[in-house]
Amino acid sequence: MRPMLYNLLFWAGIVTFLASLAHIAIIIGGPDWYRFFGAGEGMAKMAEAGEAYPAIMTAGIALVLAIWGAYAWSGAGVIPALPLRRLILIGIAGVFLLRALAGLVLPWLVDHPALAANSNTFWMVSSVICLMIGLLYAFGLKQNWHQLVPV
Q1: Residue 143 CB contacts under 8 Å (≥ 6 apart), including other chains
Q2: Span 17-52, pLDDT tens digits
Q3: 119: left (phi over 0), alpha (psi -120 to 50) or beta
Q4: Domains in the chain: how many in total?
């Protein structure tokens, strides 16, 4: 058995948990943090006005990322096997890779207010991050496929 430090799903879990924590920090940091991380002026202004939507949306993303991190660690054998982990890990890898592709292409091809709300820097940086995480999941799946028997 290879050491955990060489397990790509272990690292996928770490970066996914860090992304989850970053979203929590954005909620705590408030409007300036929404601006800094490129969430758009609309989200920052809603946070300034004390509206719940930015915090609820950001907390939802943080929760999903934490669950995905748990699935990565389940696939790496750090925590016990979670239900449907093979299928869910395939889905997680796919979501990250599709988000990376969409973020690199859509803002320049589609003129829509929802896409324009975020800065070009946001789309580029977040898409590269999603690409790297998606590749960790994809190659981690390949690396651990034999031990990911359905539960």
Answers
A1: 7, 8, 9
A2: 999 999 999 999 999 999 998 888 889 999 999 999
A3: beta
A4: 1
